[in-house]
Amino acid sequence: MSILAKQNFTDVSFLTSVFALKQLPDPDMPEIAFAGRSNVGKSSLMNRLIMRKNLVKTSAKPGKTQSLNFFLLDNSIYLVDLPGYGYAKVPKKVQASWQTLITGYLESRENLKCVIVIVDLRHAMKIADLQLVDWLRSNGVPFILVYTKADKISTSQRSKNGAILDAGFGVSASERLLFSAKTGMGRDSLIQSLDSFLV
Asked: Among residues 190, 151, 163, which one has the least CA distance to residue 46?
């Protein structure tokens, strides 16, 4: 049994907020990062994954997360909440600062095992999502595509929208997951997928 599957998710705590690369914790544990557009449901997905209601703070205001937020899971894994991207009302100077921080982190963090890229299943693919996936591919950073908010549309619409997103990202249905933070759909599958990067 791999690392994540053995976790009981009872000991999860906020560790630190990182605003500069020099503030990063020691790379002494495997790390999983969570990325997505502002208001895509990233915090809700993380809370569902760790079976908490509000450990990772959710906000109705896009662009609220402005740092790399580290959470410690059972003293053996770091979960990292990355700032949301693609929110136009954030000043360009702030956007550039986030971009430098995120890129530097993704390029240099040797204990980073996987990036979970979260995409809203209800909407067409956004260019910022494709740019992130292409960047991860070109830099050899492992990632898992998760199409979230699956509970908000019908089963047939899930299949249709999923196929459209698959074509846009250049993946097959087996290379991504459908997820619902509300119902828990996809949680077990996500844990199994993450396990493959943590063995």
From this structure: 190
CATH number of the domain encompassing residue 77: 3.40.50.300
Average pLDDT over every residue of 17-21 = 92
Residue carrying the six token digits 């890129």 = 103
Q: Is 111 helix (H, G, I), strand (E, B) or coil?
A: coil
Number of domains in the chain: 1
Once rounded to an integer, what is the mean pLDDT over residues 43-47?
Answer: 90
What's residue 38's pLDDT? 81
In angstroms, the CA 164 to CA 47 distance is 27
Q: 3-state DSSP call for residue 131?
A: helix
Instruction: Please give the C-alpha separations between residue 10 and each of 6, 57, 66, in angstroms, as whole numbers.
Output: 12, 18, 27
Q: Domain range spanning residue 143? A: 4-198
3-state secondary structure of 23: helix
Burial of 173 (0-12, 13-18, 19+ CB in 10 A): exposed
List beta partners, residue 78.
31, 72
The 10s digit of each residue's pLDDT in 167-192 is 999 999 999 999 999 999 999 999 99
